[in-house]
Design goal:
It is a single chain. The protein has one domain. The radius of gyration is 16 Å and the shape is elongated. It is about 75% helix and about 0% strand. It has about 120 residues and is mainly alpha-helical.
């Protein structure tokens, strides 16, 4: 599976799981559907970004750091818009980015160059 597609799928799944962790915060249980949808979109964005980065740079460490940074920034923006719950939003969002960054570098297939035909 290519790196971008792997990042997209893994980001969506982990993003949904990230959103599901909101269940452990009782005051936001009434907003679970919106939180899961938003976290899934956040995971998709992080996954695609990590996949594109993994196509350009072939380094597991840099992929992990990039995924962590993207996950952190996206989660921080969401937490800032909510005016609270920083730890509860940023920690799982950063972990999603970290995992997706690692997976795209380690398990994603690099594109094969097209053969020249004459």
């Amino acid at each position: 599976m290519n790196k971008v597609l792997l990042g997209l799928l893994l980001g969506a799944v982990l993003g949904a799981i990230d959103g599901g962790t909101a269940w452990f915060t009782p005051s936001v249980r009434s907003m679970m559907v919106g939180i899961i949808v938003g976290s899934t979109i956040k995971g998709l964005i992080a996954g695609v970004a990590a996949g594109v980065f993994a196509r350009k740079v072939n380094s597991v460490l840099l992929g992990i750091l990039f995924g962590l940074a993207v996950g952190f920034v996206l989660a921080f923006v969401v937490a800032y818009m909510q005016h609270g719950y920083y730890f509860e939003i940023i920690l799982p969002g950063s972990i999603v980015g970290l995992i997706v960054g690692y997976a795209t570098q380690k398990f994603g297939a690099s594109p094969t160059p097209a053969s020249a035909t004459r």
